[in-house]
Amino acid sequence: MALQPRETGTLVDLLAGALSEYDLQTIVAESTGDDLYVEWVGSGNPLKQTIRELIEAMEKVGVTPQFLAEVYRKRPRRNDVRQGIALLYPEIIGLAAQAPADFDLQTQGITQEKTQGTFAPGLQRNIKNHLNMLSIGQWAQRLSEIQRQVCLVEISGRSAGTGFLVGPNAVLTNWHVVEGAQANIVCRFDYAEHPVGGRETGTRVAGQVVWHRPYAQAELTSTPDNPPPLSTELDFALIELASVVGTEGIVGMERGFIELPSSSAPIAVGTGVIIVQHPDGAPMKLVIDSDAVQELPPPGNWPRIRYSTNTAPGSSGSPCFTMEWELIAIHHFGDPAWKAVFNQGVPAYLVREDIVAAGHGPLLR
């Protein structure tokens, strides 16, 4: 929804009465990752003119809702400001209430920047080489959706790995995460840190494994490629949940699920990789490496992808995406060498092919 001139004027008056110049700079940085006077407007103007030019610039790239959601969070006692924002963008109430994932921005596995609670930190500078011309608002909206679809996998009350919804009541994780403990599996959704401190404990749903494929035995050794994994050694477990959580309403919309692709994504060495994960059983984290893919399997051979995006114990089973949020792999393994140089995932389209061939395709719809 584009703001009309009169609405822009009303919003300018509201914000000028609630934000100092320092507040404005801080909120712009936290909601977009960019500097107010470098990326958005010129310096030296009165506050109202600065706010007007900022809104006009944000409207052009579709990031105004993310900025206003951060204002909404930062001013809990300013009901006049909150009501004014909600009248213009009713969806911001849900957007502001949702706990954002933490960002860890990397290049070839080396952390460049850490931020908490931002929608798209440094998106225009840090990762644009691997993005098409996408709206930042659309990118952030897709992140918000994925947050609702990734879960912590627990066994007998203890964290074991990460999973994600691939159907209304189906979760995908690694077989090695749940191997030997199928009777006590629980998937915990919405486990995240609040922007102002504290944690959302999330929603727990029980489930059981209905189909799986093993990992390669060599992947338990120091020489994981000898012999290479077979086409059936995909290290995944398909979990059917006790309730249809994918159709639940979350902040005004359906939780949904991540669709497994039917073919390989068009990726190459150097493609950026995003991993949404619960490392060490912690609240949800987001790691971005803008130059990640190291090695791709030849067609029909060696069903693995290698990348440099960082993970930790508990990240097994996490979804791996391109910078445009295309699902490419399920993370399952890290370099066993003392000085690790790669992480590894199973191509998502191969997992889908195997599930459908086994007769469990209906769970994916």
Could you characterize what this model shows?
Strand 4 and strand 5 (170-173) form a beta hairpin. The strands form four sheets. A nine-stranded mixed beta sheet has the order 2-1-14-13-17-18-19-16-15. Mean pLDDT is 84; it is low at 117-131. The protein has eleven helices and 19 strands. The two termini are 31 Å apart. The chain is an alpha+beta fold and 365 residues long. 44% of the residues are buried.
Radius of gyration: 22 Å
User: What class do helices, strands and sheet pairing give?
Assistant: alpha+beta
Count of helical stretches: 11
SSE arrangement, N to C: HHHHHHHEEHHEEEHEEEEEEEEEEEEEEH
Helicity range: 25-40%
Task: List the strand order in the largest sheet.
Answer: 2-1-14-13-17-18-19-16-15
Shape descriptor: elongated
Instruction: Report mean pLDDT, rounded to a whole number.
Output: 84
Q: Termini separation (Å)?
A: 31 Å
**Can you tell me the residue ranges where pLDDT is under 50 for at least 5 consecutive residues?**
117-131
Q: DSSP strand (E) fraction?
A: 25-35%
Number of E strands? 19
Could you describe the largest sheet, including whether it forms a barrel?
A: 9 strands, mixed
Give the arrangement of secondary structure elements:
Layout: H1 5-16, H2 21-32, H3 36-40, H4 47-61, H5 64-74, H6 79-88, H7 92-97, E1 102-107, E2 110-116, H8 123-126, H9 136-149, E3 150-155, E4 158-167, E5 170-173, H10 175-178, E6 185-189, E7 192-193, E8 199-200, E9 203-213, E10 236-241, E11 249-250, E12 253-254, E13 273-277, E14 285-289, E15 293-295, E16 305-307, E17 319-321, E18 327-334, E19 343-347, H11 348-357
